[in-house]
């Protein structure tokens, strides 16, 4: 595989190496020193580009700049999150940043600190349940609260220590620097100024508040609790209503990706707007409106890594479409990776980010190799068989790419993932399309109620179908224990197999070309 064809792939690999190195060096090498080295290297690169005239030297220096940029960027972010916690009781004014999640004993809520020593940071607060009027379950995104509590460092609990999932890293990836426990009656609502919060955080809080109001609008429609939980997770990224049983059912059947916002949801929005503005004269307007709608939706659902990846790739694809092309390659995925890691380097350790990019990488790279297993000529005769084979290819490619990570983090492997995708993907597509119609009918309550009823039926059908698949004998393999070296070895074997098939294909093409020339 010629890496010259994929310049952003090389940049992405070097940037990832720099971020991993910077994470190891943090605390040992001052961040300011790394920044000074970066400035000096950039100056040297500019001088070499203008005077040396040696492309390889300039390229090597540019790759070194990207590497040091990754080292400095991750150190800068980790330094911002590394706040001192003295364990004293302090008064905190904060704003609810995410919808509260009701647990067995407490109510978990992410708060953005607006006033106090940790102003501008996010903390994870656990409110004690209270049956009084001031129950934290009544809090909504954007509400202000004031309380006195003791800030504590985030630690891995015993259940997290037994696996490979790093809970501390997970919290830092999402910008949470501390945790606290608030007794009932130890807090109250108040008006809180958000001027000390960052602009992006203020925008996200405002968008999430609008999302919750939108969800509350159709929560009262005739829809079961489990169906509403699935629809809210699939369309708006609100996973607070998902029960543990529902999560386990989707995980055992291999359909957890359906509950996570991904390219499927943004692709639906992009496809609908592309159909509306299909005329050539309106193509530019259609692409602009599609990008505005996609990024507005990404902000509405809180900009999770999978949505950011899809939004970035669709933005690039829109520019590709305007140039008259219809192909998005590995270079596009690498560019999306570079943009996201440059903006938030800690995303590299986010499990959703890793699995999202690996799934798309598997589809881009392995799908072409799997295409050669069957002869396309006879499959094209029957559209349904061709569609089923295409779904099998995509499912196999994505599952092969994420299987090592799934076994490493969760110790499970769904055995009926192909059967699951034949059920989940069509139903999920129907739910997403009809949900858009449901949201658009907000001006007509009775029509919205009818569409909501249909969406609820589809979600109930999907829950029942996936629950049946999860209950089949041998549906999921549990208790898989592999270490990081074994994960790297699995991906190395996949890469070797891919390269071997690639070079065999190239050799066959070359041999066929020579045979044709000899005949001439």
How would you describe this protein?
With about 525 residues, the protein is of the alpha+beta class. The protein contains 19 helices and 9 strands. The model has no long low-confidence stretch (mean pLDDT about 80).
Secondary-structure blueprint:
Layout: H1 7-25, H2 31-51, H3 55-81, E1 89-96, E2 101-102, E3 106-115, E4 122-128, E5 144-150, H4 158-161, H5 167-173, E6 176-182, E7 187-189, H6 199-219, H7 225-236, H8 244-253, H9 256-259, H10 263-276, H11 283-300, H12 305-322, H13 330-343, H14 351-371, H15 376-379, H16 383-410, E8 413-414, H17 417-440, H18 445-471, E9 476-477, H19 484-519
Parallel strand pairs: 4-6
Antiparallel strand pairs: 1-3, 1-5, 2-3, 3-4, 5-7, 8-9
Helix pairs in contact: 1-3, 1-13, 2-3, 7-18, 8-18, 10-11, 10-12, 11-12, 12-13, 14-16, 16-17, 16-19, 17-18
Q: Give me the strand/helix succession.
A: HHHEEEEEHHEEHHHHHHHHHHHEHHEH
What portion of residues is helical? 55-70%
Strand residues, percent: 5-15%
DSSP summary, beta strand count: 9
- Identify the overall geometry: globular
Mean pLDDT: 80
Quaternary organization: single chain
C-alpha Rg, in Å? Answer: 25 Å
Number of helices: 19
Query: Given the helix and strand composition, which structural class is it?
Result: alpha+beta
N- to C-terminal separation?
30 Å
